[in-house]
Sequence to fold (139 residues):
Amino acid sequence: MAAVVDSDFLHDLTRDGYVIVRGIISPEEAHQYAEKAGDWLEGFNLGYKKDDPATWRKENLPGQRSGIHAQFSIAHAQWVWDLKTNPKWVELFERIWGTKELLEHKASPWPHTDQSPHKPDLFCIQSLINLVSRESSDK
Fold:
């Protein structure tokens, strides 16, 4: 599956403040990354089993804030680095910034920077990669 990056995606990003880009990683790649994420969660031995939806409960997951695992160095797990350095993903950010000289914030266990309304120019882009499909019935 080829990435769906139309010529207007930068315009849409600037106009709307977000853009959805489909197909950056293939369904097969997404499945492999999701499996590794499941293995990571199972490694806490809290009762979570990636193949058993009945165990996908808050009490079976490591501590989190706002649904995000900021602790436990997840940002530095090998599978996360493999995902963040996927050449197709990197190429998308090269197009956004117009350079191959990209910076990945990695000094903190909470790799998070917000675009500030006090800074008029664009200086950061946050991203999210969905590894599994989301259904309208999901909460």
